[in-house]
Design a protein that fits this description.
heterodimer, A: about 130 residues, alpha/beta, Cytidine Deaminase, domain 2, 8 strands, about 35% strand, B: about 80 residues, alpha+beta, Ubiquitin-like (UB roll), 6 strands, elongated
Protein backbone atom coordinates (compact mmCIF):
# COMPACT_ATOMS: atom_id res chain seq x y z
CA UNK A 1 0.00 0.00 0.00
CA UNK A 2 1.14 3.50 -0.84
CA UNK A 3 -0.21 6.98 -0.32
CA UNK A 4 0.89 9.54 -2.88
CA UNK A 5 1.23 13.03 -1.46
CA UNK A 6 1.97 16.16 -3.45
CA UNK A 7 5.22 17.78 -2.29
CA UNK A 8 3.49 21.06 -1.50
CA UNK A 9 0.91 19.28 0.63
CA UNK A 10 3.62 17.31 2.42
CA UNK A 11 5.50 20.51 3.25
CA UNK A 12 2.35 22.36 4.36
CA UNK A 13 1.41 19.45 6.60
CA UNK A 14 4.74 19.59 8.41
CA UNK A 15 4.59 23.39 8.62
CA UNK A 16 1.09 23.14 10.15
CA UNK A 17 2.35 20.57 12.68
CA UNK A 18 5.19 22.91 13.66
CA UNK A 19 2.90 25.94 13.88
CA UNK A 20 0.68 24.06 16.30
CA UNK A 21 3.58 22.98 18.50
CA UNK A 22 3.66 22.36 21.48
CA UNK A 23 0.09 21.17 20.91
CA UNK A 24 -0.88 18.49 18.45
CA UNK A 25 -2.07 19.68 15.06
CA UNK A 26 -4.47 18.07 12.62
CA UNK A 27 -5.80 18.31 9.10
CA UNK A 28 -7.34 16.54 6.15
CA UNK A 29 -5.64 15.48 2.92
CA UNK A 30 -7.77 15.28 -0.19
CA UNK A 31 -7.38 14.53 -3.83
CA UNK A 32 -9.11 13.48 -7.00
CA UNK A 33 -10.18 9.84 -7.18
CA UNK A 34 -7.14 7.77 -8.19
CA UNK A 35 -4.98 10.91 -7.86
CA UNK A 36 -2.47 11.91 -5.20
CA UNK A 37 -3.33 13.92 -2.11
CA UNK A 38 -3.04 17.32 -3.72
CA UNK A 39 -5.07 19.44 -1.33
CA UNK A 40 -4.45 20.06 2.35
CA UNK A 41 -7.07 21.40 4.72
CA UNK A 42 -5.43 22.49 7.99
CA UNK A 43 -7.90 22.00 10.82
CA UNK A 44 -8.09 23.48 14.29
CA UNK A 45 -7.32 21.15 17.16
CA UNK A 46 -10.33 21.80 19.37
CA UNK A 47 -8.57 20.04 22.24
CA UNK A 48 -5.63 22.48 22.11
CA UNK A 49 -3.56 19.79 23.77
CA UNK A 50 -0.06 18.31 23.44
CA UNK A 51 -1.46 14.81 23.97
CA UNK A 52 -4.67 14.74 21.97
CA UNK A 53 -6.54 16.23 19.06
CA UNK A 54 -10.16 16.57 18.14
CA UNK A 55 -11.49 18.20 15.01
CA UNK A 56 -14.36 20.63 15.41
CA UNK A 57 -17.34 18.83 13.79
CA UNK A 58 -18.67 22.10 12.35
CA UNK A 59 -15.34 22.76 10.60
CA UNK A 60 -15.24 19.14 9.54
CA UNK A 61 -18.72 19.35 7.97
CA UNK A 62 -17.60 22.43 6.05
CA UNK A 63 -14.50 20.73 4.68
CA UNK A 64 -16.44 17.62 3.68
CA UNK A 65 -18.82 19.81 1.67
CA UNK A 66 -15.92 21.65 0.04
CA UNK A 67 -14.31 18.34 -0.93
CA UNK A 68 -17.55 17.07 -2.41
CA UNK A 69 -18.16 20.28 -4.38
CA UNK A 70 -14.61 20.09 -5.76
CA UNK A 71 -14.96 16.43 -6.73
CA UNK A 72 -12.34 15.43 -4.19
CA UNK A 73 -12.21 12.49 -1.84
CA UNK A 74 -10.57 12.29 1.55
CA UNK A 75 -7.18 10.63 1.17
CA UNK A 76 -5.84 11.01 4.64
CA UNK A 77 -6.39 12.26 8.16
CA UNK A 78 -3.31 13.95 9.50
CA UNK A 79 -2.24 14.73 13.03
CA UNK A 80 0.99 15.27 14.89
CA UNK A 81 2.57 13.63 17.91
CA UNK A 82 4.74 16.20 19.62
CA UNK A 83 6.77 13.93 21.86
CA UNK A 84 6.21 10.38 20.69
CA UNK A 85 6.76 8.25 17.64
CA UNK A 86 4.84 8.56 14.39
CA UNK A 87 2.78 5.51 15.17
CA UNK A 88 -0.95 5.28 16.00
CA UNK A 89 -1.76 5.34 19.69
CA UNK A 90 -4.53 3.22 21.17
CA UNK A 91 -6.73 6.30 21.01
CA UNK A 92 -5.88 6.82 17.33
CA UNK A 93 -6.93 3.25 16.64
CA UNK A 94 -10.09 3.46 18.73
CA UNK A 95 -11.22 6.65 16.99
CA UNK A 96 -10.39 5.63 13.42
CA UNK A 97 -13.81 5.72 11.81
CA UNK A 98 -12.68 6.23 8.22
CA UNK A 99 -10.76 3.04 7.36
CA UNK A 100 -10.50 4.01 3.69
CA UNK A 101 -8.46 7.10 4.57
CA UNK A 102 -4.81 6.95 5.54
CA UNK A 103 -3.79 7.97 9.04
CA UNK A 104 -0.82 10.25 8.44
CA UNK A 105 1.19 11.03 11.56
CA UNK A 106 4.00 13.54 11.91
CA UNK A 107 6.29 13.08 14.88
CA UNK A 108 7.97 16.21 16.18
CA UNK A 109 10.00 14.41 18.82
CA UNK A 110 12.94 16.00 17.07
CA UNK A 111 11.67 19.36 15.85
CA UNK A 112 14.54 19.67 13.39
CA UNK A 113 13.84 16.29 11.86
CA UNK A 114 10.10 15.60 11.66
CA UNK A 115 9.24 11.99 10.91
CA UNK A 116 6.20 11.30 8.77
CA UNK A 117 4.57 7.87 8.59
CA UNK A 118 1.27 6.70 7.17
CA UNK A 119 -1.02 3.84 8.12
CA UNK A 120 -4.27 2.21 7.27
CA UNK A 121 -6.34 1.51 10.39
CA UNK A 122 -9.21 -0.88 9.97
CA UNK A 123 -10.83 -1.76 13.28
CA UNK A 124 -7.96 -3.00 15.38
CA UNK A 125 -5.56 -3.66 12.53
CA UNK A 126 -2.81 -1.13 11.85
CA UNK A 127 -0.84 -1.47 8.63
CA UNK A 128 1.96 0.90 7.73
CA UNK A 129 2.04 2.07 4.14
CA UNK A 130 4.66 3.69 1.98
CA UNK A 131 4.57 7.44 1.38
CA UNK A 132 5.42 8.56 -2.12
CA UNK A 133 6.09 12.26 -2.56
CA UNK A 134 5.02 13.41 -6.02
CA UNK B 1 -48.43 9.34 -7.60
CA UNK B 2 -48.80 5.78 -6.26
CA UNK B 3 -49.40 5.08 -2.57
CA UNK B 4 -45.84 3.76 -2.37
CA UNK B 5 -44.55 7.10 -3.68
CA UNK B 6 -46.67 9.05 -1.21
CA UNK B 7 -45.03 7.16 1.65
CA UNK B 8 -41.55 8.04 0.47
CA UNK B 9 -39.62 11.30 0.59
CA UNK B 10 -36.47 12.18 -1.24
CA UNK B 11 -33.59 13.59 0.77
CA UNK B 12 -29.95 14.36 0.15
CA UNK B 13 -27.72 12.33 2.44
CA UNK B 14 -24.16 13.61 2.38
CA UNK B 15 -24.98 15.02 -1.05
CA UNK B 16 -26.41 11.80 -2.46
CA UNK B 17 -30.12 11.41 -3.26
CA UNK B 18 -31.89 8.87 -1.10
CA UNK B 19 -35.51 7.79 -0.86
CA UNK B 20 -36.63 7.17 2.68
CA UNK B 21 -39.92 6.47 4.39
CA UNK B 22 -41.88 9.59 5.18
CA UNK B 23 -41.74 10.36 8.87
CA UNK B 24 -38.45 8.52 9.36
CA UNK B 25 -36.54 10.13 12.20
CA UNK B 26 -32.85 10.96 12.12
CA UNK B 27 -32.37 8.25 14.76
CA UNK B 28 -34.12 5.75 12.45
CA UNK B 29 -31.98 6.88 9.53
CA UNK B 30 -28.77 6.28 11.48
CA UNK B 31 -30.07 2.89 12.59
CA UNK B 32 -30.93 2.00 8.98
CA UNK B 33 -27.34 2.81 7.97
CA UNK B 34 -25.93 1.03 11.04
CA UNK B 35 -24.33 4.21 12.30
CA UNK B 36 -23.84 4.59 16.04
CA UNK B 37 -25.30 7.99 16.99
CA UNK B 38 -22.68 8.65 19.63
CA UNK B 39 -19.94 8.59 16.98
CA UNK B 40 -21.34 11.16 14.58
CA UNK B 41 -22.36 14.77 14.26
CA UNK B 42 -25.55 15.23 12.23
CA UNK B 43 -26.55 18.38 10.41
CA UNK B 44 -30.11 18.82 9.12
CA UNK B 45 -30.66 21.61 6.61
CA UNK B 46 -27.60 23.46 7.82
CA UNK B 47 -28.26 23.12 11.54
CA UNK B 48 -26.30 20.75 13.77
CA UNK B 49 -28.71 18.62 15.74
CA UNK B 50 -28.40 17.87 19.41
CA UNK B 51 -28.36 14.12 19.99
CA UNK B 52 -31.51 14.43 22.10
CA UNK B 53 -33.32 15.63 18.96
CA UNK B 54 -32.41 12.65 16.76
CA UNK B 55 -35.57 10.78 17.82
CA UNK B 56 -37.94 13.63 17.13
CA UNK B 57 -36.40 15.15 13.97
CA UNK B 58 -38.52 13.71 11.16
CA UNK B 59 -37.30 13.78 7.60
CA UNK B 60 -39.26 15.70 5.00
CA UNK B 61 -39.13 16.00 1.25
CA UNK B 62 -35.96 17.79 0.12
CA UNK B 63 -34.21 17.68 3.48
CA UNK B 64 -30.42 17.86 3.39
CA UNK B 65 -28.78 15.59 5.93
CA UNK B 66 -25.05 15.58 6.51
CA UNK B 67 -23.18 13.48 8.99
CA UNK B 68 -19.54 13.09 9.85
CA UNK B 69 -17.79 10.70 12.17
CA UNK B 70 -15.69 12.17 14.90
CA UNK B 71 -12.05 12.64 14.04
CA UNK B 72 -9.74 12.60 16.96
CA UNK B 73 -6.95 10.79 18.72
CA UNK B 74 -3.49 11.70 19.79
CA UNK B 75 -0.49 10.46 21.63
CA UNK B 76 -2.26 9.84 24.91
CA UNK B 77 -3.18 6.16 25.22
Amino acid sequence: MTIKIHKGVYDRMIAHAKSGYPNEACGILAGKPKGPAGVFYPMRNADESPISYFMDPREQLGVFKKMREAGLEMKGIFHSHVASAAYPSQKDVRLAFYPEASAVIVSLSDLKKPVVCSFKIDRETVTEEKIEIV
Amino acid sequence: MSSADSETVRILLNGKPQAVRAGLSVADLLLKWKIRPELVTVELNGTILQKLDYETAELRQGDKVEFVFYMGGGAWA
